[in-house]
Recover the amino acids of this structure.
C-alpha cells in the first residue's frame, strides 16, 4: 500500500562540507543515510528519519542539519498534523499505535508554576561552600516515636530496615531487554558512586551486576521475569510494580527479537520469545492480595530490606496509597502522567493518569491526615527535569525522586520516541549488539554520576538560600513554595499559597 | 471563634517573624530572688528589641498557692472578663482572684486589664484525662472561643507578665521588682510583621512551660505539619509556639530526657554521627530518622523553662547568640555576656556553648562553685 505519510524531517547535507566519509551512514540505525557508489555521494531517504540527531552530532565536518518538514496543511487547531498522521498510520496498519518515552502533550507542568523561597534579612542564608549542607535521606518505614531506656541512655526502639541515599535522586526502573546491558551497568555504577539507588525494571538483573546489589532496587512486576532468590537477596530494596505512569493499567510487551541469549538468561525465558507482562499482577486483584505479596517478599528476604510499591498516579491515588501503607509498603512510589516507557500504546500514554505534582500533594496530605505519613517514604517519578523540580517535589512532600528520561538524556537520548522500535541509534533502548556498544559503561557511568553531582550541588545552593542545612527541613515544607498563575483549586490541592500572599 | 493568627499575624504571613534579646537567671538551690537584676540585665540589651514586645516569666512566684493553677488572663473589654469569669466558675474552683497590680507609666498606652486567678481542678470534670490536659483544653477554649481575652499563663507557682513595650517598661508597669522567684526569664522583642498585640509578646506559655525565643525557624512549615499529625494546632503561627509544642510532645508525651530532645531539635550532622561511638551512632541516627521533621532549622536561641528547670539551646550551627555564666548556685543565660556581667561582675565561669548543646539548670542537680574560665572560648568541661 502506498503510504500517505509525508517525511517528518528534512536532512540537509552541505555538499561543500561533506567529505563522503560515511560516518552518517554507519551511525544511522534507521537506514536514512546511504552511500551511492555510482555517484560517489552520500544521500538520505528522509521518510525514515526520526530526528534523533545521531548523524548531526557525529558528522566530523558539521555538514548535516535536520529540519522539521514544514508540512503546511491548512491551519486547523482540532485537526493538527499529528492527529492526521496518526489516522493515516492506523488506516494503513489497522493496529494500536505504539510509541516510546513520556507524554509529550501540553498538559500543565505544575513545576513551572511553583517558585521557591530564599532568606533575606530576618534569617541568614547559609553558604554551602562554607557550612555543612545535608542531603542524606533514609528511605523506609519509621515509627511515630522513639523509646529510650534511661540509665544508661540506650535505644529501646528498633527501626524497620532503612536504606541510606546521599542524594534524593534515584534512577527509575528500566529493564534489561528494553535497555542494553551497558545502560544497566552505567546506571548501576553511577548509583554506587553517587551513593544512591538504581532500579532493575522488570527484566531481572544480569549476574555481572550483582556486585552493585546494595545500590540496586530489584523490581518484581506482573511477569515475574528474572525473579529468583538470589535476585531478591542481592538487592538493597525490593519494588513491587503495579503500574507505570506512561501506561497506567497496561502491561508490557518485550518483542522476541530483543530477547537475546543474555536477555533470555536474565529474564529466565527462552531466547527469541516475546516477554509479556500482564496488565495486572494476577495474584493481586485487591489490596489484601498486595499485603500478601509484600509480606511474601519480606519473608523471603528475612525482613532485611524495605519493600516499595509503585503505582501510576491516577484519580484515587491518595486512597490507594493509604491502603498500600496499611498493607505494609515501606516506600510508596508514584509515577505521574509524564512518566516514560520503552513502549506503550500512544493513546494510553497521552491520555491516562494525572500530573505527578497533584498526586504527590494529595498523597502526602492524605497520609498526614491519617497520621501514617512516617510509616512510608514517598518517591515520585515522571518528568523530573532538573534540581529545581527535585527541590519542589521535596517541598511538596516527596522523600526522593526517580529520574528515567533525564538519565537517558545524560547518556545521549534526544527523545525521538523510537524506543519501541529497538533501533535506538544512541544504543540505549536496544539489544542490537552493533548499537549497544555505543554506550560505553565507563563513559556512561561518568556522565550519569556527573549529572547527580551537579544536581546535588544545586540542591545544596537551594537549601542554603532558604536558610536550612538539612533536606528534612525542606521535605513537606510547602511554606517554601508559592504558586504563580494557578487557580484557587489548584493551589488548594497543592497546599501552596499564591505568590505575594 | 477567635482566630488567634488574625490577631497575632494580621497580614496572614506564613508566620510571625521577629528577633530578640533573651535573658534567664536561676538559683539552682531554689532560693528566691527579686527581679531587680534581671530587669537591669534585659534593659542593657535595649537595642535588640524595638518596643513592640517585652515579657518575663517567674517561677516559685506564688508559694502560698503552690498547688493551684495560676491563670493570668488579659482582657480587652469588660464583656470578655465577665464571660471568662463565668466560664472559669463553671469549670474550676476559684480559690482567689485579683487584678494584677500595675502602675501607670507614659510609655504604656491603652493597656488591657490583667487579672490573676488561683484555681483547682475537680477530678470529676477531667473525664479520664489528666488535670494538665484538662487545663490545656480550657486554655485553648478561652483563647480561641471567648472574645477579647487571652491567657498569658496557666501553670502552678509561676506566671508570665508581658505586653507591648520595651521589657523595662513592662517590668515597671507590672511592678516586677516587687516579686521574687528562683527562676526568671526575660524577653525583648523586635517583630517585623506584628503590630502590638499583648498576647503576642513572649514568654509563650502553656501549663508551666515557658519559651522565650530569638530567631526564625526556616523549617517552620514541616515542623507545623508534623506536630499537626499529633493533634497540635498551631493557632498563633509563631516559631515560639512550635518550639513549645515540640518540647511538650517530646518531653511530656514521648517521655524523652532533655539531652535527647536537644539532639532532635538541633541534631548532630550525619558526618558527626558516623564518627561517633557505635551505640551513640545508632541512637542519634534513629532519632534523626524518626524525628527529622522536628529538626528546628534556621537561626534560633531559646530559653525554655518549667518547674525546677531552665534550658538554653541554640540551633546546631549557632546562628543566634547564647552566653552562659555561673556563680555559685546561680546560672545565667543571655544573648549578650555584658548583661550577665552587669549584674554579676565576678562570674566564676562564662562561656559560649557549642551549637545545639543544651545548657540545663535544674533544682535536682544544683550547681556547685568551680574554678574560673575565661569568657568567649568554647568550654571544655561544660556541664
Amino acid at each position: 500500500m502506498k503510504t500517505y505519510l509525508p517525511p517528518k524531517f528534512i536532512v540537509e547535507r552541505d555538499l561543500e562540507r561533506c567529505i563522503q566519509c560515511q560516518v552518517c551512514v554507519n551511525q544511522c540505525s534507521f537506514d536514512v543515510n546511504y552511500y551511492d557508489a555510482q555517484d560517489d555521494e552520500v544521500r538520505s531517504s528522509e521518510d525514515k528519519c526520526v530526528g534523533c540527531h545521531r548523524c548531526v552530532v557525529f558528522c566530523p565536518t558539521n555538514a548535516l542539519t535536520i529540519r522539521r518538514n514544514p508540512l503546511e496543511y491548512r491551519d486547523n487547531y482540532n485537526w493538527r498534523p499529528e492527529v492526521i498522521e496518526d489516522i493515516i498510520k492506523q488506516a494503513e496498519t489497522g493496529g494500536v499505535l505504539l510509541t516510546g518515552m513520556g507524554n509529550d502533550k501540553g498538559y500543565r507542568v505544575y513545576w513551572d508554576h511553583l517558585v521557591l523561597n530564599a532568606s533575606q534579612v530576618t534569617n541568614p542564608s547559609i553558604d554551602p561552600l562554607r557550612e555543612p549542607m545535608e542531603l542524606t535521606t533514609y528511605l523506609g518505614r519509621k515509627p511515630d516515636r522513639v523509646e529510650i531506656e534511661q540509665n544508661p541512655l540506650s535505644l529501646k526502639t528498633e527501626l524497620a530496615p532503612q536504606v541510606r541515599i546521599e542524594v534524593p535522586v534515584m534512577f527509575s526502573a528500566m529493564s534489561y531487554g528494553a535497555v542494553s546491558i551497558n545502560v544497566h551497568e552505567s546506571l548501576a555504577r553511577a548509583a554506587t558512586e553517587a551513593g544512591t539507588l538504581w532500579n532493575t525494571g522488570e527484566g531481572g538483573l544480569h549476574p555481572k551486576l550483582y556486585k552493585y546489589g546494595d545500590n540496586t532496587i530489584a523490581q518484581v512486576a506482573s511477569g515475574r521475569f528474572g525473579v529468583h532468590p538470589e535476585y531478591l537477596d542481592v538487592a538493597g530494596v525490593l519494588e513491587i510494580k503495579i503500574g507505570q505512569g506512561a501506561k497506567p493499567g497496561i502491561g508490557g510487551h518485550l518483542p522476541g527479537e530483543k530477547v537475546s541469549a543474555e536477555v533470555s538468561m536474565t529474564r529466565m525465558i527462552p531466547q527469541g520469545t516475546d516477554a509479556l507482562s500482564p496488565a495486572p499482577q494476577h495474584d493481586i486483584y485487591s489490596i489484601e492480595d498486595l499485603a500478601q505479596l509484600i509480606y511474601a517478599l519480606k519473608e523471603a528476604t528475612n525482613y532485611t530490606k524495605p519493600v516499595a510499591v509503585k503505582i501510576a498516579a491516577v484519580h484515587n491515588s491518595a486512597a490507594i496509597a493509604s491502603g498500600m501503607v496499611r498493607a505494609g509498603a515501606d516506600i510508596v512510589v508514584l509515577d505521574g502522567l509524564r512518566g516514560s516507557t520503552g513502549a506503550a500504546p500512544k493513546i494510553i500514554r497521552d491520555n491516562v493518569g494525572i500530573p505527578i505534582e497533584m498526586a504527590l500533594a494529595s498523597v502526602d496530605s492524605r497520609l498526614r491526615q491519617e497520621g501514617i505519613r512516617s510509616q512510608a517514604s514517598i518517591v515520585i517519578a515522571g518528568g523530573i527535569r532538573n534540581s529545581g523540580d527535585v527541590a519542589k517535589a521535596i517541598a511538596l512532600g516527596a522523600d526522593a525522586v526517580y529520574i528515567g528520561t533525564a538519565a537517558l538524556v545524560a547518556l545521549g537520548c534526544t527523545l525521538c520516541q523510537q524506543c519501541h522500535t529497538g533501533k535506538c541509534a544512541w544504543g540505549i533502548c536496544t539489544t542490537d549488539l552493533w548499537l549497544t556498544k555505543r554506550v560505553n559503561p565507563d563513559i556512561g557511568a561518568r556522565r550519569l554520576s556527573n549529572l547527580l553531582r551537579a544536581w546535588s550541588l544545586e540542591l545544596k545552593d537551594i537549601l542554603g538560600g532558604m536558610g536550612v542545612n538539612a533536606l528534612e527541613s525542606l521535605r513537606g515544607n510547602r511554606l517554601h513554595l508559592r504558586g504563580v498563575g494557578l487557580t484557587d483549586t489548584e493551589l488548594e490541592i497543592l497546599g501552596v499559597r499564591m505568590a505575594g500572599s | 471563634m477567635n482566630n488567634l493568627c488574625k490577631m497575632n499575624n494580621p497580614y496572614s504571613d506564613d508566620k510571625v517573624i521577629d528577633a530578640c534579646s533573651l535573658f534567664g537567671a536561676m538559683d539552682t538551690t531554689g532560693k528566691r530572688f527579686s527581679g531587680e537584676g534581671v530587669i537591669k540585665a534585659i534593659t542593657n540589651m535595649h537595642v535588640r528589641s524595638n518596643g513592640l514586645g517585652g515579657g518575663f516569666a517567674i517561677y516559685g512566684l506564688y508559694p502560698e498557692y503552690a498547688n493551684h493553677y495560676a491563670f493570668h488572663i488579659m482582657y480587652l473589654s469588660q464583656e470578655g472578663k465577665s464571660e471568662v469569669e463565668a466560664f472559669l466558675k463553671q469549670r474550676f474552683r476559684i480559690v482567689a482572684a485579683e487584678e494584677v497590680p500595675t502602675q501607670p507609666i507614659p510609655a504604656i498606652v491603652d493597656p488591657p486589664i490583667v487579672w490573676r486567678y488561683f484555681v483547682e481542678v475537680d477530678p470529676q470534670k477531667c473525664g479520664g484525662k489528666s488535670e494538665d490536659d484538662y487545663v490545656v483544653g480550657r486554655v485553648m477554649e478561652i483563647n480561641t472561643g471567648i472574645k477579647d481575652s487571652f491567657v498569658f499563663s496557666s501553670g502552678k507557682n509561676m506566671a508570665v507578665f508581658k505586653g507591648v513595650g520595651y521589657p523595662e517598661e513592662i517590668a515597671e508597669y507590672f511592678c516586677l521588682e516587687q516579686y521574687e522567684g528562683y527562676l526568671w526569664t526575660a524577653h525583648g522583642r523586635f517583630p517585623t510583621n506584628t503590630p502590638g498585640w499583648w498576647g503576642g509578646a513572649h514568654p509563650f506559655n502553656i501549663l508551666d512551660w515557658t519559651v522565650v525565643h530569638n530567631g526564625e525557624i526556616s523549617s517552620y512549615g514541616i515542623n507545623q505539619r508534623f506536630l499537626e499529625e499529633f493533634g497540635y494546632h498551631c493557632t498563633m503561627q509563631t516559631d515560639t509556639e512550635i518550639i513549645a509544642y515540640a518540647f511538650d510532645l517530646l518531653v511530656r508525651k514521648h517521655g524523652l530526657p532533655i539531652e535527647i530532645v536537644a539532639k532532635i531539635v538541633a541534631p548532630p550532622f550525619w558526618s558527626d554521627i558516623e564518627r561517633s561511638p557505635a551505640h551513640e551512632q545508632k541512637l542519634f541516627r534513629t532519632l534523626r530518622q524518626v524525628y527529622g521533621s522536628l529538626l528546628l532549622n534556621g537561626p534560633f536561641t531559646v530559653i525554655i523553662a518549667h518547674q525546677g528547670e531552665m534550658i538554653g539551646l541554640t540551633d546546631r550551627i549557632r546562628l543566634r547568640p547564647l552566653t552562659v555564666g555561673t556563680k555559685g548556685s546561680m546560672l545565667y543565660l543571655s544573648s549578650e555576656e555584658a548583661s550577665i556581667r552587669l549584674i554579676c561582675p565576678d562570674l566564676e565561669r562564662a562561656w559560649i556553648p557549642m551549637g545545639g548543646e543544651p545548657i540545663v539548670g535544674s533544682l535536682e542537680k544544683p550547681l556547685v562553685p568551680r574554678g574560673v574560665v575565661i569568657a568567649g572560648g568554647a568550654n571544655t568541661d561544660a556541664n
Q: What stands out?
A: The longest strand of chain A covers residues 307-312. The first helix of chain A runs from residue 23 to 27.
